[in-house]
Amino acid sequence: MECVPEQPATSRRRAWLEWSPLVALTVLVAAGVVLRFTGRSDAAGLVWAGVTVAALLPAAWSVLRSLWQRRFGVDVIAVLALGGALLVGEYLAGAVIALMLATGRTLEAYAQRRATRDLRALLARAPRTARRRTPDGGIEVVDLARVQVGDRLVVGPGDVVGVDGRTEEAATLDESVVTGESRLVQRRPGEDVASGVVNAGAGFGMLATATAAQSTYAGIVRLAEEATARKAPMVRLADRYAAAFVPFTLVLAGLAWLLSGEFVRAVAVLVVATPCPLLLATPIAIVSGLSRVARRGVLVRDGGSLELLGRARTLLMDKTGTLTAGRPRASETVVAPGGDSDEVLRLAASVEQLSGHVLAAALVRAARDRGLALTTPTGVTEEPGRGVTGRVDGRLVRVGQLDGDLPDWAERARRRADLDGAATVWVSVDDAPVGALLLEDPVRSDARRTVRRLREAGFTRLVMLTGDRPGTADQVARVVGVDDVVARCSPQQKVERVRAESQRTVTVMVGDGVNDAPALAEAGVGVAMGATGATASADIADAVLTVDRLDRLADAVEIARHARRIAVQSATVGMGLAVLAMVAAAFGLLPPVAGAFLQEGIDVVVILNALRALGGGLRHQGVPGHTGEMLDRYAAEHTGLRDVLTGLRGAADLVATRPDAPQVVPTLRAVHRRLVDEVLPHETAEEQRLYPALAGPLGSAEATATMSRAHVEIHRLIDRIGGHLDQVEPAPEEASRAGAAPDARPTGTGAAATGPPADARLRADQVPDLLASLYGLDAVLRLHLTQEEEDYFSLRT
């Protein structure tokens, strides 16, 4: 994909046009000073008067146009000051005011160009063309608007991906422009790719899943265009100040003239009241905030929305896709007695490869995460609402609902799914049920930490809205720690709840689906999860999270509050100093010329202060690079550890229901081997490398003390399971053939690895303690992994 950046010559020409008025006026004012010192005062006055008129005419036209549109702003004071200076012959004061206005406009242009650099970068990088494969095997370059869903595209090295799609080959991507993530991302074949990201590796093929207009980057560009086109700066904050400041200025100038009889005092008051802190400092701070949140992966539509975000106190969140992942995940595979969980998953994922159902994508993703080799199915048919059927390796595989009575193992799986609030997908081979896949919508690992950060940022009330049943909704609410939850909530009820909350305070609503769009429109600030959400919600929202991470909203809130605080501070301090100078001018202590120079100094100070909004304000500063790399590595290993947990839970269930089955000991031995080979090295490495590295970001080594204690318990339980395997006894007939007593058993740790004969049995007295160890380890490990993901891995920015 190709894009057309702004040419350097165009950028230089624009910069010259911005600075040329200030340069010209500065030269003229300096020329007047030279004329004055050479004794040519009349000529100097004429030059300064010309400068004043040059500034007055466009300013007066702007005021008249605003009044015609029934808008009244603070720039009327500048016009009165310029006109008054001409009337009383204070030409130097008028020239300084003109110079001040030109300086302010130039600084504003520079600051806005600096502040909107990231927004303009989005527009400059927008791709225009794409490389599309032709039916005869060739490649053609086509306009991006001609790309259709289903087209096969080629993305070359360094190209910008023009439309949303799915990779056909492995790809290395730079997603920093869209998501704010600085590190490169690896995508495997079949994974989704958002438009706007850059190919940082070798070229790869891609299947288009959306047109250019429907793609992620198109929505981002539309928002960026709106954010840069609008005059966000003064819309709310400055006009609120102006409503009181302009009448106050006019009354004070009138009283100074009336009581002293000197019109020059009124002019002096107007000169020092020229409101550049309102006209310039406020917009610079707000636009700086817009740029910073864009770098964090949050695109805010305009300055008014950013200001509201900085004042919001109530946050309403949709559950699915906001607090949860928004897409199902295969959490467990339950198989019939004697079955192979990997084989069941492989068969199901193979036949689901051609289905577009959301559950099908979850099964395929789970199989690829386990490294299973999928087979291309044949004779695939799909019955909506019932499932998919096809042949894999010559066997008829059906994935979906299960007809007829459920066998005992299947009934237990169904009851467990009901307890967990999980969806169940049944797998049958040649019309015989062989397994069940339990799918869940997991809570985001960073959700609880993000909720805490949102509270720190200033939200005092957090409400979760969901269409789910109360039991599931309450469970998620307890996990993430919100203040209130509304279950079985229809789109209309969401709107009504948002409206009710908005009557008390400024509200923010976060959602990701089409059904959230009305509520987003009703809220003070609607925020769409644009990385995974529907186009309708993103188009109607006031802000879009371009990265699939809710914690970036906390960053945006902190930046918005920081920018708004600096904007208010700049305006208040600037206006405060101006009021003091106005009072001095009203008493005749400050002549117009000195007042003009003083106001110039005040303007420069507040504008420089406003530029502080380009930095600071974030409580969460992330972790050092090497620590972040470790967090990424250990977080990636958690996927494999959860696969071990699935086997652990299956082994525990087998011991609980059929302790005498011949496959119990081999199953336990295989699970124990994975615990020793995968879990223990992971926990040891974390203890020795990761936890010491986290002591700095977390404040002290004590912050990881409880997690270290969990490592000790995990080691203890794994050793205890191994001890039980050391004590298993062979079957009586096997022991008799060996000439040994029935209770003879091998000793030493080698037994767990090599073991007795395959038909060895557990003793009845072992079962209770072994079950306690198996289920206990399952619970401890699950809690431990979840805590690490919430408290540590979410530190990664």
Automatic annotation (TrEMBL):
PROSITE patterns documented for this protein: ATPASE_E1_E2
Residue stretches making up the Hemerythrin-like domain: 631-794
Gene3D superfamilies noted in UniProt: Calcium-transporting ATPase, cytoplasmic domain N, Calcium-transporting ATPase, cytoplasmic transduction domain A, HAD superfamily/HAD-like, nmb1532 protein domain like
CDD domains found in the cross-reference section: Hr-like (cd12108)
Coiled-coil zones: none
Major place of residence: membrane
Membrane topology, record value: Multi-pass membrane protein
NADP listed as a keyword: no
Residue ranges with Low complexity bias: 737-759
P-type ATPase A domain residues: 126-225
Cell location: Cell membrane
Listed InterPro entries: ATPase_P-typ_cyto_dom_N (IPR023299), ATPase_P-typ_P_site (IPR018303), ATPase_P-typ_TM_dom_sf (IPR023298), ATPase_P-typ_transduc_dom_A_sf (IPR008250), ATPase_P-type_domA (IPR059000), Cation_Transport_ATPase_IB (IPR051014), HAD-like_sf (IPR036412), HAD_sf (IPR023214)
TM region(s), chain numbering: 19-38, 45-64, 76-104, 241-260, 266-287, 571-590
Region annotation Disordered: where it falls in the sequence: 729-759
Keywords: ATP-binding, Cell membrane, Membrane, Metal-binding, Nucleotide-binding, Transmembrane, Transmembrane helix
Family to which the UniProt record says this protein belongs: Belongs to the cation transport ATPase (P-type) (TC 3.A.3) family. Type IB subfamily.
Protein name as catalogued: Cadmium-translocating P-type ATPase
Species assigned in the record: Micromonospora echinofusca
